[in-house]
Specification:
Number of strands: 0
Largest sheet: none
Distance between the termini: 185 Å
Strand content: under 5%
Number of helices: 54
Structural class: mainly alpha
Shape: elongated
Radius of gyration: 65 Å
Helix content: over 70%
Length: about 1000
């Protein structure tokens, strides 16, 4: 490369030299000639010769003229010669070149050549590729003093020096300006500027600049690589493939491996793993492992895992050794590949490595999860427990949290820590099928733990949770079985039966060891639930099964017999008891006793006695000996052989003084004495039971019998005194209240109404706040009504009716309404009748209410209300045909009140033809009366005679019809017949409390007076 110099100073010096005086011409001529020769040699790059000439000038000893101008010119020539000597030394590569420039700069700091000195030294070092020294000298250069070409060269070489020394921040702006100038350095500046932006990840700028180099011959071997890389980095994968694959044909060999890698990575990014594998293999063939890094290892391994070439995938992934993000991804992939090849241990190790890296939190989380899971599957239970607990603690909001909790449940299940397993799984709200499967098992086993600890209520809760999350059919069946057993233990026998039946109905139950035994257990539950035939059915099913244990078979046979016995299927029970007897096995004495009981229940008292006597003979020391002895004696009591019964019971007491039957025997003896009217002896026997066996049920029975004895004698107060003197009596005020009231109520039940009235009054006097106040008032009111003192009864009824919740309210409504109806106080009666009608709880008396309301309104001559209730009666589904006809009758009467005789006539005619009851008689009479009022006397007579002849049993209406006949005779001027008819009524009618006789007499008197 040729050097360029600045000649202005040199030319100026030469001109000056030619103007000096002639006296010095020879000396200046020699110096100038040497200087001129040196310059020419320098321009021809003959640096050694030039340096020699410059040395002559610099070493010359001239005697300057005395003029100041001469001295100045001499100094300038020497200065320039020294500068060019340094230049020549630099070009010649002399080691002292730098020191020469330093010396010049030091001696001539203000020289114009000083500024150029820095530039030239920098250029020299640049040429020597000593870029650090080049930078050092270039930085001292004053760029503004350089020409255009010098400036361009200076900036490029300074930029390149920065670039080479990796001072990219200083290099980038220099190339940034040069790339857009049209110089010999433009293309190089574009290249380095693009490359620097590539390094700083400004891929958009880098790509734009590299694309300017398309067609460049200088960089054709490298820029396609960068363009490919930038397309890839910009995720322009289609552009990568369309540009890079053709570029591979021309790219420099050194870039081919990289280009293959880019194409492979592009196919990888596009998930075209087949193509990715093809180019990764080309990359590896070129690269020979020189640059293949963790990212490559991961992507190649992942690619082959997707192609199911697991051996190759493992080989590539196992190359990874530097912990980074790709390594973490690679370990996750390696773990999954190992799982595909059933290498769980290898997978566990890979996932463990991923779990220990922090590059990607999600991968760390995934690694820990699978590490915990595989530790469990490989039975590293302690490790699995720690790992899954760490996962749950570290990632409480993970999408896998429920899976982790399920896994923890499985781990705890495997270690039999069912309690903690239940607790963790119950924190999962929406359980997956896998979670339910684990939850079903842990709750089942936790339930068994509770059951074995006899914490039955807790076990029931667990078994319910288990079968409510059923996945495994057999565990579901067993959860029902053990829940049924637990229900039995807490005496919920009905629910126990239901659960046993659910167990037996499940197909999987047949695969369990307890399938047939469940029939036996269910039989017990049903028996305790008093479902005796169901119990018998399941005991029978059990016995038909494959049970081999003879003790269980014997017990089931006895329980089958007991079930039939309790269900009163005595023949079937007897058949089973007889089996036990025939086997001569344990329980024969009990079977004999039960057989005797059945014989007694079947009315074979003598056979029963014989069987029980046989029991006593064969098994005198049996636990059922006293039972049999008592039953024999009691059977004699039932047969009415009181003396034999009493004697046997007395003997039983003497033989078995500590038997539980002693108090029962004494009570029975007392009853014998009571039935034989030996009240005093009975009283003593019952009192003995109370004195000696106060804690037994029989003591209370005895006290009740004593009460009956006292009450039969009417000595309630005496009984209360006695009861309070006993250990079991000690009657409270409430009990005394009950007894006193019972005495009054007994009188009421016997029909002693005066006695009831007096007893209730005494009851109220004794107990100011009586327990049975409403019932007492009710029976007193009813008694007063029976005693025909209804007005005195009304206050008691009213008191009861102030409380609409009383059980006597409804009956009181009926009684008080009856009183007012009989007293013809219809307004008062209607108040209570409406309450009966409108209160839904009193529906049973609805018919009574509406029928009497109709009657009351009719008697009050309120036709619209009468018609309303008549219609209600006719539409009421429980009204009888006769009630409906009676409602029609009252409807006709209501129409009469309203003056609608046409409607009334039609109704009366219809009713009179449909019934022969008193309703029909009244309707017939009303029809005849209407005919009479219309002066149709003959028709009226015909209708009256129809009533008299066809309904003769209704005396009142027959008599009314005769009186009506007399009126028709009067109207037809047959006075004699009228009088005879009236006299006949007066002579023959037996009713004394109605209007017949007074009306007949009044009408007869009028006829007699008229004659006078």
């Amino acid at each position: 490369m040729s050097m360029h110099f600045k000649y202005t100073t040199i030319t100026f010096g030469f001109c000056l030299l030619t103007s000096v005086s002639l006296a010095q011409t020879t000396s200046w001529f020699e110096v100038n000639q040497s200087y001129k020769t040196a310059i020419e040699l320098l321009q021809k790059e003959k640096y050694a010769a030039a340096n020699e000439q410059f040395s002559k000038v610099e070493e010359a000893r001239l005697i300057p003229s005395s003029q100041a101008a001469d001295l100045k010119q001499v100094s300038l020539i020497k200065e320039n010669a020294q500068y060019y000597q340094a230049v020549c030394a630099l070009e010649l590569g002399n080691q002292d070149a730098e020191s020469q420039f330093s010396k010049f700069i030091k001696e001539y700091p203000a020289s114009a050549n000083t500024k150029l000195a820095y530039y030239h030294v920098g250029r020299s070092y640049f040429k020597q590729k000593n870029y650090a020294k080049a930078i050092e000298w270039f930085k001292k250069t004053d760029a503004s003093s350089l020409t255009g070409k010098e400036s361009t060269e200076y900036r490029f070489k300074l930029g390149y020096s920065y670039f080479f020394n990796k001072n990219y921040a200083e290099a980038e702006p220099l190339f940034g300006k040069l790339k857009d100038e049209d110089t010999q350095y433009t293309e190089a500046s574009i290249y380095y500027y693009a490359y620097l932006n590539y390094l700083s990840a400004d891929y958009k700028t880098a790509l734009r600049e590299f694309e300017r180099l398309k067609g460049s011959k200088t960089y054709s071997a490298s820029y396609p690589y960068y363009i490919s890389a930038l397309y890839f980095l910009d995720k322009r994968y289609d552009d990568v493939l369309s540009y890079t694959i053709p570029a591979l044909q021309t790219i420099d060999e050194q870039y081919k491996a990289e280009m293959y890698r880019i194409v492979a990575a592009t196919y990888f990014a596009k998930s075209d793993f087949k193509k990715a594998a093809e180019y990764y293999e080309k990359f590896q063939a070129k690269d020979n492992g020189k640059t293949q890094n963790n990212q490559d290892n991961y992507q190649i391994g992942y690619t082959f895992s997707q192609l199911e070439d697991y051996k190759r995938a493992i080989k590539e992934l196992e190359k990874m050794d530097i912990p980074d993000i790709y390594y973490q991804n690679g370990m996750i992939t390696l773990g999954k590949v190992f799982l595909k090849t059933n290498n769980k241990q290898g997978a566990r190790n890979a996932f463990f490595r991923a779990s220990k890296l922090d590059f990607d939190k999600k991968l760390k989380e995934e690694g820990l999860f699978y590490y915990a899971k595989l530790s469990y599957e490989l039975e590293f239970h302690t490790v699995a427990l720690d790992a899954v607990q760490e996962f749950i603690k570290t990632y409480p909001k993970s999408k896998r949290i429920n899976e982790a909790k399920t896994l923890l449940g499985e781990v705890l299940l495997s270690t039999k820590n069912y309690k903690e397993a239940v607790n963790i799984l119950e924190t999962i709200e929406n359980k997956s099928s896998e979670t339910k499967a684990v939850y079903q098992r842990v709750t089942y086993y936790r339930g068994l733990e509770f059951y074995n600890e006899r914490a039955f209520e807790n076990s029931i809760s667990m078994f319910m949770r288990s079968h409510n999350n059923a996945v495994d059919d057999e565990i579901e069946a067993l959860s029902y079985y053990w829940k049924a057993e637990a229900m039995y233990e807490v005496r919920k026998y009905g629910e126990s039966v239901d659960n046993f039946e659910k167990f037996l109905a499940l197909p999987a139950a047949k695969n369990t060891d307890v399938y047939n035994y469940a029939n036996y257990a269910l039989g017990y539950s049903a028996f305790r639930n008093e479902s005796y035939m169901k119990a018998a059915n399941y005991f029978d099913r059990f016995l038909r099964g494959d049970e081999r244990d003879q003790n269980t078979i014997r017990d089931a046979t006895l329980r089958l017999a007991d079930s039939y016995f309790a269900a009163k299927a005595y023949d079937k029970a007897l058949a089973q008891y007889n089996k036990i007897i025939a086997w001569n096995s344990q329980g024969e004495d009990y079977a004999l006793f039960q057989r005797g009981m059945i014989e007694g229940l079947q009315g074979q008292n003598d056979v029963k006695i014989a069987t029980h006597e046989s029991l006593l003979k064969q098994f005198p020391n049996s636990n059922y000996a006293d039972d049999a002895g008592f039953e024999i004696a009691y059977t004699y009591f039932v047969k009415g052989d009181f003396d034999r019964s009493k004697n046997d019971l007395t003997a039983l007491i003497e033989k078995y003084p500590r038997s539980s039957y002693v108090p029962r025997a004494l009570v029975t003896i007392g009853l014998v004495q009571f039935n034989q009217s030996q009240d005093e002896e009975a009283l003593k026997t019952f009192q003995r039971v109370i004195n000696e066996y106060a804690t037994t049920d029989e003591a209370h029975q005895a006290l009740e019998s004593i009460k009956n004895i006292y009450l039969n004698k009417g000595e309630a107060d005496a009984f209360i005194t006695y009861a309070n003197s006993t250990n079991i009596g000690n009657l409270t005020t409430a009990e005394q209240d009950n007894i006193t009231f019972e005495a009054a109520n007994n009188r009421f039940l016997k029909g002693d109404y005066q006695g009831t009235f007096e007893a209730v009054n005494a009851y109220f006097d004794k107990f100011p706040r009586p327990i049975h106040e409403k019932q007492a008032r009710f029976i007193r009111a009813e008694s007063l009504t029976k005693l025909n003192r209804p007005d005195e009864a009304i206050p008691d009824y009213t008191f009861i009716l102030n409380d609409w919740t009383s059980e006597y309210t409804e009956r009181a409504l009926i009684s008080i309404s009856n009183i007012y109806l009989k007293q013809q106080k219809y307004n008062e009666a209607i108040v209570y009748l409406k309450k009966l009608e409108l209160t839904s709880e009193y529906k049973s008396h609805y018919s009574y209410a509406v029928n009497h309301l109709m009657e009351a309104y009719a008697n009050m001559e309120m036709p619209d209300e009468t018609l309303k209730y008549a219609e209600l009666i006719k539409t009421f589904e429980k009204s009888s045909p006769e009630e409906k006809l009676r409602a029609d009758l009252f409807s006709g009467k209501a129409y009469l009140v309203k003056g609608d005789t046409t409607a009334a006539t039609k109704i009366f005619a219809d009713v009179s033809t449909k019934t022969q009851t008193v309703t029909g008689a009244e309707a017939k009479y009303n029809l005849a009366n209407l005919q009479y009022l219309k002066k149709d006397y003959k028709t009226a007579q015909k209708t009256a005679f129809e009533l008299i002849n066809k309904m003769p049993s209704h005396d009142y209406w027959v008599a009314k019809s005769f009186i009506l006949l007399a009126d028709t005779y009067v109207a037809l001027n047959d006075t004699f017949q009228a009088k005879s008819t009236l006299q006949s009524v007066i002579d023959n009618y037996e009713g004394k409390d109605d209007d017949i006789i007074p009306t007949a007499k009044e009408n007869l008197e009028k006829l007699n007076e008229k004659k006078k």
